[in-house]
Amino acid sequence: MDVMGDKATLFETGRFVQPSSREDTDTPDETGEIADEAAEELRQRLAAEAGDVEAMSVLGAMLLRRGDLDGAEPHLRAATAAGDRAAANNLGVLLHQRGYADEAAGWWRIAAVAGSAAAAHALGRHHRERGDEPAAEYWLRQSAEQGHTLGAYALADLLEHRGDAGAEKWLRVAAERGHREAAYRLARALDRKATRDNGGDNGVQVPDEIEQWYRQAAARGHRRAALHLGTILEKRGELKEAGRWYLTSAKDGEARAACALGFLLRDAGDTENAAVWWLRAAQDGDGNAANALGALHAERGETQTAERWYRAAMDAGDVNGAYNLGLLCAEQGRTAQAEQWYRRAAYAGHREAANALAILLLRAGDEAGAEPWFSKAAEAGSVDAAFNLGILHAGRGEEQAALRWYERAAAAGHTEAALQVGMARLRGGDEQEAERHLRCAAGGGSAEAAYRLATVLDARRPPEPAHELGEPVHRRSECEEWYERAASQGHRRAQVRVGMLAAARGDVVEAARWYREAAEAGSRNGAFNLGLLLAREGSEPEAAVWWTRAADAGHGRAALRLALVYARRGELAEGQRWADRAVSLGPESVAERAARLRDALRQELSA
User: Fold this and answer.
1) How far is it, in rounded angstroms, from Cα 273 to Cα 398?
2) C-alpha neighbours within 13 Å on the C-beta side of residue 380
């Protein structure tokens, strides 16, 4: 009878006792549990006293499992002396529990040589605990190759510890036989390998095999596997199932799952229950959950409670706690304390804290102190810091250095940096590169980039073709689409240009709408053009109102138009005043006309 293991002290090593069939195993046979154990023990005892070796072995295993070492030992020794390898195996377990590890190993060796896979596993574990890895590998391999699940897992663990590629094979063997830790570790190994192969891109779809092993381990109660499975499902958008696995893991005590469940609930709008799970995770030492609680209380204006949770996050080893404390102090105007917390986080390697510290120093006029922190943050991967370094160098007139940092930020997707690179390339005459960067910035939501891109495309646009009647045929061009995108985002020059395009195709209402929107936002060109449109439609008094607004903002042609309006009305002095204003504002062609008008009005007034 091959029975091995100890259910109490040796559970972690897999060495626990069970009665079973004549196979080597380390796990209890739950389906073969005897209903009346006392009666079975009596039957085995009577058979053992009659000299039945198998009964001695089974009785010894039963007593060993119950913890009756003194009662079990004589029966196991007797069965072992009669050549029962399961008894030798269990005698080793008994002696190991008594603290006689070397004597236990001797009996395990006897059982292993006799073919007990369970004993080979126990012997391999014994040698590994003693630091004898070659002997450990030999016996664990013997056990694994005989189909012993825990032997396969223990062999995989040994090989993985040594960095041996053969570990994956034995993890797979153990996992296929239902070992949950093996399934989890196999999934983790495959996951790491896939991440390396994809250049660290965690956004890539997780292969089905990896998910399958996480599922197997999670279904068997592995809480970390449930956490990882939840993460995979959440990234895939299957939030309901992800939440179920997070809940399963969290209830089993996995703080990270409780934290993740909190974020899932918050995103669904259930902040109250989110806070419950964050609290549970934070109390278990999860710094991320403590930060989330801090942010929640900060949003509610409960700054003291927020600060307490940020400190708890920091105490849990989460450097974000110090950074968030810095943000909290900065919002309250406690600049000195904000700098202190930013420094603490920045020295710990928090790149955004380094960037925030640099901004704080720059605002205080300490450019020399700010630059190294910008550099440190940028080198650590902070896109904002790279952009800020570009601004810093541009402010000094160091255009090439500024461009290098702008390009670095733009390559990481920074919209404003892409705009700056596009503008620099336009100034340098590299229109192709300029267009590429402007498209990136415009696509990222920059109204200025959309306008600049439209002007580039507009300059290339061929003249409108005419049909047989000589009237232009309007085709909506790409540049118009970009003008309109910029205009819809409030870009005043784009609004004026869209108005001009609408006027050119005869859509007066649309043109007036865009001119008015630009004018009301402060565009003097918009006000001037709106005045022109109104004047053509016969609304000169209203046109004069908009020309006045444009002229007051420095628009020379609007001032000239006002001078002409007042001259026609006979208000010569007012006309002369606006003519003088037009002369001072220009441009040159306007100034010349305004000067002639002014002189004529002066002569008329003096006549």
Assistant:
1) 53
2) 19
